[in-house]
């Protein structure tokens, strides 16, 4: 087994710095029985990890009492429990972190971990905040359950932390195990991002139905953001990423599509259509329609239905 790293007990918990100042990860409150086994102590593995964009990686073996974290992380952190129970706080209060869960703490965010059972073990990896690991950026900080990562415990203990790893398996086995771990983490991030994308699109589809049923209501970008529990800036970026349009364009598209249906299938006046689709006047409706369709609603109706 790799020798345990001694953690300094000097100093008190630092005050939270003002963003974007980074603060080092500290062990604040822990039992002397807690141990940390660093992969970086293996020179060949340390060189490999640096090339793969990893600053530190290792396993915590925790007992009785433990709490650690930072107010502003310089790295992207993942923490995967193997045994026992932990709790993780990424700025929204402590959440349970159990075996089979993955804690994801992107850079520039706070994080704090504490022991929630008599003992626990887990894998942690700090990734450099660089272009190489930009896939962390769209991931919301938090705990993600149900990811297929249980096999990583065997890789860590069978290849990386064995005392006779280099003599029995060779450094190739150690590096191969680390590569499999990174591939698994990479896939987990894909699964998280994909699930988040699917969840967002489901929410937007539900909201679209509500807008269509109440087009005359005061639908604004600010209201869309509130309904989706997002900031307006985040909504703007997410809409562009998933749909290629701005939030305001979504509202306009739904209103204009409804207006086209009314123009072609009814004899409603422009004033009535304007009121039904949420425009303040026939003039405002005509201006918006012409910008979107390229023809005024009056001539659009004539062109398609005749005089």
Polypeptide structure, described:
This protein is α+β, with helices and mostly antiparallel strands and 307 residues long. The chain has 2 domains: 26-196, Jelly Rolls, CATH 2.60.120; 214-307, Orthogonal Bundle (Arc Repressor Mutant, subunit A), CATH 1.10.10.60. Helices cover 43% and strands 22% of the residues. The protein has helices at 43-51, 152-160, 165-168, 170-213, 221-227, 232-243, 247-265, 270-276, 282-293, 297-305; strands spanning 26-30, 35-38, 54-63, 66-70, 75-89, 94-98, 102-105, 111-128, 142-144. Strands 1, 2, 3, 4, 5, 6, 7, 8 and 9 form a 9-stranded antiparallel β-sheet that branches. Strand 5 and strand 6 (94-98) form a beta hairpin. Helix 2 packs antiparallel against helix 4 and helix 8 (270-276) packs across helix 9 (282-293). It is elongated. Residues 1-19 and 163-169 have low confidence and may be disordered.
């Amino acid at each position: 087994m790799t020798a345990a790293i001694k953690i300094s007990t000097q100093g008190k918990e630092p005050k939270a710095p003002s963003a974007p100042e980074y603060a080092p990860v500290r062990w604040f409150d822990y039992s002397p029985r807690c141990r940390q086994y660093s992969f970086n102590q293996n020179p060949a593995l340390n060189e490999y990890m640096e090339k793969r964009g990893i600053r530190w990686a290792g396993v915590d073996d925790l007992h009785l009492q433990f709490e650690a974290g930072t107010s502003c992380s310089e790295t992207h952190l993942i923490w995967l429990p193997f045994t026992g129970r932990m709790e993780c706080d990424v700025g929204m209060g402590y959440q349970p972190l159990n075996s089979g869960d993955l804690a994801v703490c992107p850079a520039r965010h706070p994080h704090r971990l504490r022991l929630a059972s008599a003992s626990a073990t887990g894998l942690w990896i700090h990734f450099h905040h660089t272009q190489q690991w930009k896939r962390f950026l769209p991931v919301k900080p938090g705990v993600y359950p149900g990811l297929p990562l249980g096999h990583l415990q065997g890789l860590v203990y069978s290849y990386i932390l064995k005392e006779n790893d280099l003599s029995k398996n060779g450094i190739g086995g150690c590096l191969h195990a680390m590569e499999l771990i990174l591939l698994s983490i990479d896939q987990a991030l894909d699964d998280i991002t994909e699930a988040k994308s699917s969840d967002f699109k489901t929410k937007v589809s539900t909201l679209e139905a509500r807008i269509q049923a109440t087009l005359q209501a005061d639908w604004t970008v600010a209201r869309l953001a509130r309904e989706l529990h997002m900031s307006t800036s985040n909504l703007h970026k997410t809409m562009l990423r998933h749909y290629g349009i701005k939030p305001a364009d979504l509202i306009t598209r739904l209103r204009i599509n409804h207006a086209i249906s009314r123009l072609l299938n009814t004899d409603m006046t422009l004033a009535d259509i304007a009121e039904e689709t949420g425009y303040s006047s026939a003039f405002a409706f005509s201006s918006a329609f012409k910008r979107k369709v390229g023809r005024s609603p009056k001539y659009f109706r004539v062109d398609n239905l005749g005089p």
